[in-house]
Design goal:
The protein is an alpha+beta fold. It is built from eight helices and eight strands; from the N terminus they run ααβαββαββαααββαβ. It is 37% helix and 21% strand. The longest helix has 17 residues. The mean pLDDT is 93.
Length: 229
């Protein structure tokens, strides 16, 4: 039987990557990578280089089996069709940077979910190889990606019948990078629709500085924060 070009293309189609598959594959990848000896990372202490290695390797593995849109600097996240960004961070200080788009992100969330790989790196001088033991793989839903202290404070103000002036005062007291007009609009929005409790620590900078210790500790105990592996 002769197959047309379209038939051949259809037979070779890969399934679309879905969120549940991404998390399942992340768990398997973490287990495999944790026992893999990698010579190119021996003696490397640059967290960015380690992160790039792990991110690219995971995406290459996924590309063999699934169809998905690859992230770009323009889109800003690794899996734009799933609205998920991948972050690789050392267990010594689990943190990374994220593009600053608006002060609202600290209150309402980043606008996308996070897949965290938290590793411990060790070098084997005899073999000349490095090993990345991935001790935590955590998924943080976008609904939980706001700043913990900021959202906790705002939620408490609202529960105590605070008004827009009270909400604005808290935002300015916490040095949210926002002007008065923007703060007023946001305060009115929050009074009508209080924010979810965030689980990240987000430091003000030209880029947001995201810290993940709380998200890691709360994984599996809070809705929207999942311990993948």
């Amino acid at each position: 039987m002769n197959l047309s070009t379209s038939d051949l293309a259809a037979s070779d189609q890969k399934p679309q990557l879905r969120l549940e598959t991404l998390l399942s594959e992340a768990a398997g990848f973490a287990a495999i990578e944790s026992v893999h000896d990698e010579p190119t990372l021996y003696g490397v202490n640059d967290g960015k280089r380690v992160g790039t290695y792990l991110e690219h390797k995971f995406q290459r593995m996924l590309k063999k089996h699934y169809a998905f849109e690859t992230g770009s600097s323009a889109k800003g996240i690794d899996f734009p069709d799933l609205n998920v960004d991948m972050k690789v961070t050392s267990a010594k200080q689990p943190q990374s940077s994220s593009p600053f788009r608006s002060a609202r992100q600290k209150v309402l969330g980043l606008g996308y979910s996070l897949l965290l790989f938290v590793y411990q790196k060790s070098d084997d001088g005899r073999k000349g190889t490095a090993r990345l033991n991935i001790i935590n793989t955590v998924f943080v839903d976008e609904s939980r990606t706001a700043d913990y202290q900021m959202t906790r404070g705002i939620r408490e103000v609202i529960m105590r019948d605070g008004n827009e002036d009270d909400v604005m005062a808290l935002m300015f007291d916490r040095n949210l990078p926002i002007d008065e007009d923007e703060a007023l609009v946001l305060a009115r929005e929050l009074l009508s629709n209080p924010p979810n409790q965030g689980c990240l620590t987000i430091s003000n900078a030209l880029q947001w500085r995201l810290q993940y210790a709380r998200a890691i500790s709360q994984a599996g105990e809070v809705d929207g924060v999942v311990r993948v592996a």
